[in-house]
Specification:
The chain is mainly α. Helix content is 59%, strand content 0%. It is built from 15 helices and no strands. Helix 2 packs antiparallel against helix 3 and helix 11 packs antiparallel against helix 12.
Length: 288
């Protein structure tokens, strides 16, 4: 697995689109094998199947079962070091793609990269701490520029959700960088497609949800992002979001009312959004 990641990273660091595409496909294949491979396969068999793709996996695994999967545990452990962390490589690749300008081929690579970032942030929550840095959060906000195609805007909004999920610190960075202004400005533009406007509303509903502290507050000196040992994997999946009461040191959480006030600076009738959120509860739980 480590060897495959190394080869994939070499491709992702290239400026050649063909090599970048190959690297993205290799990372996608690895994540697919971890999530979809047959539970009875040994770790060695899974490694071989990743290096040389064979049959299509029969069915996806349940999220709760992943923490007991040896291949997943090995992958999770590898993500604890800078050398094998997938998220930071994908972000660096995304930066290079943005520097190339907007072309049809480049846009497709950006979309693929965003989808993989979404997957890795869900599979490995500690990697979300990367978006606690302004430079990386700004990267996502830049992708919401009206000049980008609707598909990229929609995928960026979903990536933002994955980056902010159970991460109050990232949400504070998003607010500090005028993320609400960026989102609401795009919502108000007549040129914004109907699909993107729908995604924007979904994002605002998500943003207005009351916050709970992060699963685990991480300190990430330099570019090292992980400090979780495999023995703590169970807590990442079994802890109830609603049951978390204490945050990390210095972590600030906000209620729906507080975020309603912030959003109200840029958007009228936020009260109606909050009321609809309370009635429909699209994400489950109770909105206070």
């Amino acid at each position: 697995m480590e060897a495959l990641l190394s080869v994939s990273f070499d491709y992702l660091s290239s400026y050649d689109n063909t090599k970048i595409r190959k690297g993205l496909r290799q990372v996608e294949g690895l994540l697919a094998q971890i999530c979809l491979s047959k539970s009875k396969m040994s770790v060695a068999e899974k490694r071989r199947s990743v290096v040389g793709p064979g049959t299509t996996p029969a069915s996806p695994k349940q999220l709760g079962a992943l923490k007991e999967d040896l291949a997943f545990r090995e992958f999770f452990k590898l993500q604890e070091g800078f050398e094998c962390n997938v998220a930071i490589r994908l972000i660096a690749c995304l930066e290079r793609l943005l520097g190339k300008g907007s072309t049809g081929q480049n846009d497709l690579l950006i979309l693929s990269t965003l989808e993989l970032i979404q997957g890795i942030l869900l599979l490995h929550p500690p990697s979300r701490s990367l978006f606690g840095r302004e430079v990386y959060m700004n990267l996502l906000l830049d992708l919401l520029d009206p000049s980008n195609c609707p598909a990229i805007q929609s995928s960026t909004l979903l990536t933002l959700v994955c980056a902010l999920l159970s991460s109050p610190q990232n949400t504070r960075v998003f607010e500090t960088l005028d993320g609400l202004l960026t989102v609401t400005s795009l919502q108000k533009l007549r040129s914004t497609s109907r699909e993107v406007k729908f995604k924007l509303m979904e994002f605002l509903y998500f943003y207005l949800m009351p916050e709970t502290p992060s699963i685990q507050t991480l300190t990430a000196p330099s570019t090292a992002v992980l400090q979780r040992s495999p023995s703590k994997l169970g807590g990442a999946f079994s802890r109830s979001v609603g049951g978390a009461k204490g945050g990390g040191e210095g972590e600030v959480t906000r209620t729906t009312e507080e975020k309603q006030a912030l959003l109200g600076r840029y958007l009228p009738n936020v009260e109606a959004l909050v009321e609809d959120l309370r009635e429909s509860a699209p994400f489950g739980g109770t909105v206070r």
